[in-house]
Amino acid sequence: MLIIDHAMEQRRREGNPVRVGLVGAGYMGRGIALQTVTAMPGMQLAAIYNRTIQDAERAYLQAGVETVRKVSSRDELDEHIMNGQACITDDAALLCQSRKIDVLIEVTGTIEFAARVVMDAIAHGKHVVLMNAELDATLGPILKVDADKAGVVITNSDGDQPGVIMNLFRFVRSIGCRPVLAGNMKGLQDPYRTPETQKGYAAQYHQKPAMVTSFADGTKISMEMAVVANATGFKAGRRGMYGPRCGHVNEAPALFPEKQMLDTGLVDYVLGAEPAPGVFIIGYQDNPLQQQYLNYYKMGDGPFYVFYTPYHLCHLEAPLTAARAVLFHDAAITPMGGPVCEVVAVAKRDLAAGEVFDGIGGFTCYGVLENVDIAISQGLLPMGLAQGCRLKHAISKDRAITYDDVELPGDRLCDRLHARQIDHFFP
């Protein structure tokens, strides 16, 4: 949205910056802090929460902010914000309750903790930007219900694949083509990868082994495409999506079933395609005269046309999403209604009775995309709720896990929210 830069410049001139609270100071959180402080006139990084408060201070220091204030009360936080001072805390509730923060960017990658923070932020009238596809895929629709009631925006972030896909989706639709497939591009897909196999790669790129395992084993892309499905109404063509190998993304239309694309729209991905690591939309245009123009523009003969973005710049664009929510009440990508797809848990190996799932990016299970009607009818366990569940009996490798297979941990907000989500949209 090119109007954001002018709107932000006006806020800078008026001395009225968009004030951001950052929840999480890991690798991506530190990048967002750096971008916000150094490249976003008209925006103030008001405060950073992290459970290890030294990492919150580190994020500011790496961004060139040498003086930070540790705060332990809302009044203290608000006073320092109005004085233009950078604040850190190990109490996320202070950011949610602050009367001076406009928007939170949630970057923890958690489910239970993040759900509590987001609910608190919404209750206190804060817009919320999720750099957390796992939470969005699992509970986004019901969180959107609460955000709508509170009159605030909840959105996944531009720069990450779902936001970039949705920007492209809106563009394709705005030029008169009908989007029929929303696609991601991936280099590797191996559901049996573990933190042990990925620890070298994680160390090379300063990431956590569980995070990069979720990239490699397909869980992350499933979460991202669930977010896209819930925002577009598009479905999975089959459990786990098709994920065909592809040389160049322009070849993609021939790799997916035309009938499914035209009947329901699809969310899917291609493996190994150039130009990576991008995203794409397949658009449909059957007007003969428009097809002549599109052919002249080197888009091909049609009626299926590929539009792609060859990169995603996660931390660079996340602050723009926060500005977009505050200034224009516009979401980069948010659920359009009830869940369309669910990411369900599948056994990564043969599992014994009594084993406890270690969750996303772990050793015990991986997530695959499934249409929500099937997930509900078969009682499948959402991957976002799998961590901490105990198996009642042995199950074999690659079997989808059901609620009947497990004992849930006690009294989790995420379980209650998911149950409310199902009851709300599928009474």
Secondary-structure map:
Layout: H1 3-14, E1 18-23, H2 27-39, E2 43-49, H3 53-62, E3 68-70, H4 74-82, E4 86-89, H5 92-97, E5 103-106, H6 112-123, E6 127-130, H7 133-150, E7 154-156, H8 161-174, E8 178-186, H9 195-204, H10 209-216, H11 219-232, H12 258-263, E9 266-271, E10 279-284, H13 288-296, E11 304-309, H14 314-328, E12 341-347, E13 365-371, H15 372-377, E14 390-391, E15 406-407, H16 413-425
Parallel strand pairs: 1-2, 1-5, 2-4, 3-4, 5-6, 6-7, 8-9
Antiparallel strand pairs: 8-10, 10-11, 12-13, 14-15
Helix pairs in contact: 2-3, 2-14, 6-7, 7-11, 7-16, 8-11, 9-10
Structure description:
By secondary structure, the protein is an alpha/beta fold. The protein has helices at residues 3-14, 27-39, 53-62, 74-82, 92-97, 112-123, 133-150, 161-174, 195-204, 209-216, 219-232, 258-263, 288-296, 314-328, 372-377, 413-425; strands at residues 18-23, 43-49, 68-70, 86-89, 103-106, 127-130, 154-156, 178-186, 266-271, 279-284, 304-309, 341-347, 365-371, 390-391, 406-407. The strands form four sheets. It has a seven-stranded parallel beta sheet with strand order 3-4-2-1-5-6-7, with helices on both faces. Strands 9-8-10-11 form a four-stranded mixed beta sheet. The chain has a two-stranded antiparallel ribbon with strand order 12-13. Helix 9 (195-204) packs across helix 10 (209-216). The longest helix has 18 residues, at 133-150. The model has no long low-confidence stretch (mean pLDDT 96).
